[in-house]
Task: inverse folding
């Protein structure tokens, strides 16, 4: 298609994606209000509060939290439509072997992101809160606002979700020929140190228990990345050998 027709197609696909996001956020907001989503989302911290309740110092505090949660859930609901529009626009420009790789990588990336968020919400946040809020004095009563808690929980969860994309980044670098399995194995010790340093920055409480809870999954993800890199590297070598053989046979003919 001409360039202007590509722009027109891109505009409509963006509009459909935005419409799907608006519908997803609207439906999520209604459901979250009806079923008291704030109570569900505050479950990790409630056991550590005196009366099991957070405080708010702004009239719109609860509304902001529900809107943030509705946007996150709505984005998840709209993601199939968004991915489809992205794929429909991009796929005509890809080769057959590239099309076979893109969809599994997208699915793998989504699963890893959800895995990181789930690990943070169900394990790391309660563990960190348990350590931090148990280190208290008899003259201190924790009065945590709902805004501060959700800023902490959402930021930590999104960071863990992004960190879990490490295997995808390694796969991309391997496919581009920028890294090899031998390179990853050679600098494994350096990678372990980087994982520990990154965990120290990611961990909100920076206590040894939370640090270990974040560092161990990062190290495990690195090892998974090395294994995945081996598969991608072998496929790349086979494809390059096949293309070289085809070029050689074509030149001989």
Result:
């Amino acid at each position: 298609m001409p360039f202007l027709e590509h722009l027109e197609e891109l505009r409509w696909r963006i509009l459909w994606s935005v419409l799907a996001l608006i519908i997803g956020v609207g439906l999520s907001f209604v459901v979250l209000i009806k079923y008291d989503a704030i109570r569900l989302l505050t479950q990790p911290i409630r056991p550590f509060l005196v009366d099991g309740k957070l405080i708010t110092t702004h009239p719109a505090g609860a509304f902001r939290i529900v809107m943030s949660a509705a946007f996150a859930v709505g984005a998840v609901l709209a993601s199939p439509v968004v991915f489809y529009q992205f794929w429909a626009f991009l796929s005509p420009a890809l080769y057959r072997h590239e099309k076979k790789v893109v969809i599994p990588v997208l699915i793998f990336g989504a699963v890893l992101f959800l895995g990181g968020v789930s690990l943070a919400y169900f394990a790391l946040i309660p563990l960190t809160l348990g350590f931090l809020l148990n280190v208290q004095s008899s003259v201190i009563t924790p009065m945590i606002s709902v805004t501060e808690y959700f800023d902490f929980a959402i930021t930590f969860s999104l960071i863990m979700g992004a960190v879990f994309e490490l295997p995808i980044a390694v796969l991309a670098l391997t496919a581009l020929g920028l890294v090899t399995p031998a390179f990853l194995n050679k600098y494994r010790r350096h990678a372990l140190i980087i994982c520990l340093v990154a965990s120290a920055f990611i961990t909100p409480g920076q206590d040894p228990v939370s640090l270990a809870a974040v560092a161990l999954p990062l190290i495990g993800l690195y090892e998974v990345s090395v294994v995945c890199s081996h598969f991608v590297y072998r496929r790349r070598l086979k494809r390059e050998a096949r293309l070289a053989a085809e070029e050689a046979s074509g030149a001989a003919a």
